[in-house]
């Protein structure tokens, strides 16, 4: 997905007929975890997925004492033991940005 895409609205999540967003709705400022939940819902029972994201996808909201939608969604993925790997990629690797990225691997059935 495009990094930090902000074109999804609350209505997109609320009117979803496929029940893709069971871990919650991300904020309107970044749809990263909306896309992750969409991909996750598309997996087979024993499926595995990998997605390239910016580093903020795994850190936004961390250290925030108040409520943070992205952090709360991430926490559910961790508590459900779905995160297999987070790889930090170097800066200047991707076209159109100097920012570092990550590869997030999610596995429905870790062994």
What does this structure look like?
With 111 residues, the protein is of the alpha+beta class. The chain has one domain. 23% of the residues lie in helices and 18% in strands. It has 3 helices and 3 strands, in the order H-H-E-H-E-E. Strands 1-3-2 form a 3-stranded antiparallel sheet, with helices on one face. The chain is globular, with a radius of gyration of 14 Å. The two termini are 28 Å apart. The mean pLDDT is 89. Keywords: Methyltransferase, Restriction system, S-adenosyl-L-methionine, Transferase. It catalyses: a 2'-deoxyadenosine in DNA + S-adenosyl-L-methionine = an N(6)-methyl-2'-deoxyadenosine in DNA + S-adenosyl-L-homocysteine + H(+). Pfam families: N6_Mtase. One of its GO terms (biological process) is methylation. It comes from bacterium (Candidatus Gribaldobacteria) CG23_combo_of_CG06-09_8_20_14_all_37_87_8.
The residue-averaged pLDDT reads 89
The total beta strand count reads 3
Tally of DSSP helical segments: 3
What does the radius of gyration come to?
14 Å
Taking pLDDT < 50 over at least 5 consecutive residues as the criterion, the unreliable ranges are none
Give the domain tally. Answer: 1
Instruction: For the record, give the distance between the C-alpha atoms at the N and C termini, rounded to a whole number.
Output: 28 Å
Structural shape: globular
* Fraction of residues in helix: 10-25%
Major sheet attributes: 3 strands, antiparallel
Provide the succession of SSEs: HHEHEE
What share of the residues does DSSP label as strand, in percent?
A: 15-25%
Helix/strand-derived class?
alpha+beta
Strand order of the largest sheet: 1-3-2
Enzyme class: transferase
Pfam family, one: N6_Mtase
InterPro entries: DNA_Adenine_Mtase (IPR051537), DNA_methylase_A-5 (IPR003356), SAM-dependent_MTases_sf (IPR029063)
Protein name: site-specific DNA-methyltransferase (adenine-specific)
